[in-house]
Amino acid sequence: MLDTGVLSADSNLSQGATPEAVEKLMTSWDPHILWFVGHGNAKLAGELTLVWTTSAGGAVLIDPRKCCDMLSKCLPQRGGSLECVVLNACETMKSESTLGSFVPLHCTLHCT
Length: 112
Hints:
With 112 residues, this protein is α/β, with parallel strands linked by helices. It has one domain (19-108). The protein has 2 helices and 7 strands, in the order αβββββαββ. The strands form 3 sheets. A 3-stranded parallel beta sheet has the order 1-6-7, with no helix packed on it. A hairpin with a 2-residue loop joins strand 2 and strand 3 (47-49). It is globular, with a radius of gyration of 14 Å.
């Protein structure tokens, strides 16, 4: 993406971010687009959710409503600049997924 000019060299990229790190980044940097690349086919209490990283490098499942709440705070209607969330994670557009329905504009890349 850097080679094609889609991202500039000073783009803020985070790999293996914890939910706390993403929340801090979203409030301090105020992006228009968030591209999440990770696993989305994990189930927590019967609901599909994203797999996040712990500070120790492990995996943790977060309630999908908490994920939605964290990101919805960044929408223009609530004072932020977030206009698009790309969920590059399996199964996030399934009918039982809370994650695929919380942002007015989102793109989901389906993985099989």
